[in-house]
Design a protein that fits this description.
The structure holds two protein chains of two kinds. Chain A is of the alpha+beta class. Chain A has three domains: 5-301, no CATH class; 310-426, no CATH class; 434-491, Arc Repressor Mutant, subunit A (Orthogonal Bundle), CATH 1.10.10. In chain A, 39% of the residues lie in helices and 19% in strands. Chain A is built from 15 helices and 17 strands. Chain B is mainly alpha-helical. Chain B has a domain at 5-42: Histone, subunit A (Orthogonal Bundle), CATH 1.10.20. Chain B has a two-stranded antiparallel ribbon with strand order 2-3. Classes of the chains: A alpha+beta, B mainly alpha. Chain A binds chain B through residues 27-29, 33-36, 42-50, 52, 54, 60-66, 90, 92-94, 145-147, 149-150, 152-158, 263, 274, 276, 279, 282, 284, 291-295, and chain B through 13-14, 16, 53-54, 58-73, 75-77, 79, 82, 84-95. Strand 10 (153-157) of chain A pairs antiparallel with strand 3 of chain B.
Chain lengths: 492, 95
């Protein structure tokens, strides 16, 4: 990939990007209370007196949230800090009843790690780049404010207040919107494999603060701005492009960049300054006196490590190496944990590694095509892996031709029936009955005597025409191999 | 280390404590006395001493990931100066 540069009046500019991704930790209860975390509940119904910061309430740490943060750290090959501590980040806002957020500034639970991004969609190993991760810390989410329900009041829903987040802070290692997009996608993929976050950006389970600065190539880092709460991969990429171009315009007009917090407005396609929080950066962090240091023992760490699944890169390489899939197919099948899980269930039901290529082709083109059409995710597929395997076996043993298999598949999608039953009931079985095929061929050659003559004069491309006519006459049920053989004999 | 009136007023504002000029003025020597005392403590060499976080050996207890609380909206909203439709209602704050 060529380097990403912004063409300014004074020459080329390089963009430097770092991301802080807030990922909601998958847990039933909140980080420091026993209230539920389900999305979309009635306002303030999932709030305990701890989350509402009533006087005298004490936080008690949820062990599962710790476990998930540690597993995530291990998945990005990061240093795990067996001793970490919680700090209070103090500020006043209507969505934060405590007046402080419990976070980890000085001693985060996870230290430096890394992940690899791919810059070539066809072959994930063709062009890669390592993106450093500075740290992961655990913190509380704030509540939600609604401003459009009342002319003079804002409404506060504390259901999210106290939900556990991981803040995953990258190093300023990205240099283009595409790299940042690939980073968010890769991180999301890993989180979903690990099971520490559902990665659902629409529901706010994952959102990014985007740090952008520009510089002339080779210069020191410029002053950065931070655009808050960007909630899709596309918006992250748009934010970078818009913000970097804005900075170039300011600098080339003789201005300076102010280190500030900004907002991305997708409707106006612009970022703008959040000036109202001028004092907010003085957070007066200090260790939370309600919470002792968090100490992890070796057994806890070993259990976390043992519970890690095969991660996307390892799985992708195994699919290429052991199953002989193309780099592209392996990347598509492993990008999402659900897809890989489905494919592995399909392979298990097939019971034969030699069917891997046929299975991957079918899944990527037929099944994905159908799910796309139906607007469904693979978890909700109307066809089960066992049914898919049965269909593939019917093709492998010659019962169905490729085109018959497609017909059967359509009926499976509609009815949910097993393929063998459909083949039986609809009489869609492929025939290798040479007598029947020969008599159809004889009829077709008789009806097209002129073309037969042309073929015999050397116009061999007509062979396909005869195959097509035969298949059509037999409603696609003839075994194409047998048709080929018999046609060659008849035309010889 | 010492503070002046401006610093006291800034700290008060960050902590959302209303303070008259006279009160802030009076607070300066009080805070400086405290800071002086802390500085005196700082003279003790503690470079070889682990910070103590509890008077008895103790580490953080972890809770199981089980829902045991919530569904107490009326209690949660009971002390709110204003609540509407199940929400806290506050003077409009908008970015």
């Amino acid at each position: 990939m060529s380097e990403y540069r912004i063409q300014g009046a004074t020459g080329e500019w390089e963009v430097v990007i770092g991301l802080e991704v807030h990922a909601q930790i998958t847990s039933k209860a909140k980080l420091f209370s026993g209230a539920a975390t389900d999305f979309g509940a009635e306002p303030n119904s999932q709030v305990s007196l701890v989350d509402a910061a009533m006087p005298g309430m004490l936080p008690v740490l949820n062990g599962e949230c710790v476990r998930q943060a540690v597993r995530t750290g291990m998945a990005i090959e990061a240093q795990i800090n067996a001793w970490s501590r919680f700090d209070r980040k103090n500020y006043f806002y209507a969505d934060l009843p405590q007046g402080y957020q419990i976070s980890q500034l000085y001693h985060p639970i996870v230290g430096e790690g890394r992940l690899m991004i791919s810059l070539d969609e066809k072959d994930a190993d063709a062009e890669t780049k390592e993106i450093g991760i500075e740290r992961i810390h655990i913190e509380q989410d704030a509540g939600k404010l609604m401003h459009d329900q009342h002319p003079t009041q804002s409404y506060v829903d504390l259901n999210r207040s106290g939900v556990a987040l991981m803040e995953i802070v990258s190093k300023p290692d990205m240099r283009s919107p595409a790299e940042a997009g690939a980073y968010v996608k890769k991180l999301r993929s890993i989180l979903r494999y690990v099971g520490s976050c559902d990665g659902n950006m629409e529901e706010g389970s994952m959102r990014a603060d985007v740090n952008v600065s520009v510089r002339k190539p080779g210069d020191a880092f410029g002053t950065r701005t931070e655009t808050k709460n960007v909630n899709s991969v596309r918006y992250v990429m748009q934010t970078i492009e818009i913000e970097a171009n804005r900075q170039v315009d300011v600098l080339e007009a003789g201005g300076t960049i102010v280190q500030e917090t900004r907002l991305f407005d997708p409707d106006k396609n612009e970022t703008r300054s959040m000036r109202s929080k001028e004092d907010a950066h003085d957070y007066r962090y200090f260790p939370d006196p309600d919470l002792l240091p968090l100490v992890l023992d070796d057994q806890f760490l070993a259990d976390c490590r043992a519970s890690l699944p095969e991660l996307p890169d390892a799985k992708r390489r195994r699919y290429e190496g052991d199953l002989g899939l193309t780099a592209y197919a392996a990347a598509v099948l492993t990008a999402e944990a659900e897809t890989a899980r489905w494919f592995e269930a399909l392979m298990e039901a097939c019971g034969d590694q030699a069917m891997a290529k046929a299975a991957s082709n079918w899944l990527i083109s037929d099944l994905f095509g159908a799910l796309n059409r139906l607007g469904m995710d693979i978890e909700d597929s109307p066809v089960s892996p066992a049914q898919g395997a049965e269909l593939l076996k019917l093709v492998a043993d010659g019962t169905l031709s490729g085109s018959l298999a497609k017909q059967v598949f359509e009926i499976m999608l509609e009815t949910g029936d097993d393929p063998a039953k459909i083949v039986e009931e609809k009489g869609l079985k492929q025939t290798s009955d040479t007598g029947a095929i020969e008599s159809v061929i004889a009829g077709i050659l008789d009806a097209n005597a002129e073309k037969v003559a042309q073929y015999k004069d050397g116009k061999e491309a007509l062979f396909g025409f005869f195959v097509g006519q035969t298949m059509k006459a037999m409603q696609g049920k003839a075994n194409p191999q047998v048709v080929n053989e018999l046609l060659k004999k008849a035309l010889a | 280390m010492s503070v002046d009136t401006a610093t006291v007023k800034k700290i008060a504002s960050l902590a959302r404590i209303a303070m008259s000029d006279a009160d802030a003025e009076a607070m300066v020597p009080e805070l400086n006395n405290i800071l002086g005392w802390i500085e005196q403590l700082g003279e003790v060499d503690t470079s070889q001493v682990q910070p103590m976080t509890a008077v008895i050996p103790n580490t953080l207890r972890l809770r199981d990931d089980v829902v045991t609380d919530g569904n107490v909206r009326d209690k949660v909203l009971a002390n709110a100066p204003r609540a509407e439709h199940g929400f806290f209602a506050v003077p409009k704050v908008i970015e």
